[in-house]
Amino acid sequence: MNDGPVNAGKAPKKERMRFVSAEQVAQLAGVSRSAVSRTFTPGASVAPATREKVLRAAEELGYHVNDLARGVLANQSRLVGIVATRPEVGFRAHLAAALAKSLIRRGSIPILINTGQTEEELLAAQKMLIGHRAEAIIILSGSPPASFLELAQRNGQPLVVIGRSEPDADHVRAGNSEASRKAATAFYDSGRRRLAVIGSHTGTPAIVERESAFLSAAETFGASVTLVRGGDSDYDGGVTAGRVLLAEKTRPDAVFCANDQIAFGLMDVLRLEAQLRVPEDVAVIGFDDVPESAWLSYQLTTFRQDPLTMAQRAVALLERRLENPDSPPAYERVIPELVIRQSFRP
């Protein structure tokens, strides 16, 4: 005979998480439910004594207003979608973090939407963003196709794009062309004549602009220049492109990389596989100035994009659009600064 408890061996029943309600605050404060609502509604009329009782009860219970529910009832939302593909990679990760910080400071609620890389994932992301009636959308470079932007615009959602240009959308872009030409000039002025640029097959607007501007400047100087593309604009893409470069008949003596992740992969191939010295044998310049660029392992000379500056410009455009929905599209351009480290010193 088993004398153990009846429920022995059964998993304990999980209690449903319960938030403190406005009704509980009203009961503790001894006021009506509507008095609680008026207390937490800016500009609403409520007697000072009632307000004090409500605030005291709310603090005791740990009550917070359900902003999401309030936004749904008012057919308004403080959600702002940050849309990106592979938001965990490189500069995008730092830009997404800076956007979230700037939006929270503004009083918005950032929601990160990872579009994924398949049609099924993209459709799910679209439904998520439209279904939650985001107040606005900020799209990062190279992320979703034009259909995603068109859907947002058809639903009347203000749109800011970063790192790409889209019709009828406000946008923030880095000075890719200026930086790329400056890289080619710096290499040439330092006596480097066998130049190369590494991009990627992703073909994002920013990558394409950097590739073409560097090629154009190098050809203007009369330097020999090689274009190599990795599979993606990440570390593995840099490794792949670096191996292709080393297989060429003529090895370059200076390489401009479309971003820092690519530069890291290239530098490891040069030093660890080919036993070459950076910058003595091959100089390297990157783009973005992610924190790893300053690591002792790399000490990468690179063009700095300040994620906080980009985020603040994007949020400012967003506020302008919300205040003036019919104003013409605005354009912000942020020129990157060359940060000199050990991989190349002009």
UniProtKB/TrEMBL annotation:
SMART domains, alphabetized: HTH_LACI
Pfam family of the protein (one): LacI
UniProt keywords, alphabetically: DNA-binding, Transcription, Transcription regulation
Annotated HTH lacI-type domain residues: 20-74
SUPFAM superfamilies, sorted: lambda repressor-like DNA-binding domains (SSF47413), Periplasmic binding protein-like I (SSF53822)
Gene Ontology molecular function: DNA binding
Keyword DNA-binding appears in the UniProt entry: yes
InterPro entries: HTH_LacI, LacI/GalR-like_sensor, Lambda_DNA-bd_dom_sf, Peripla_BP_I
Gene3D superfamilies per record: 3.40.50.2300, lambda repressor-like DNA-binding domains (1.10.260.40)
Protein name, as recorded: LacI family DNA-binding transcriptional regulator
UniProt organism field: Rhizobium croatiense
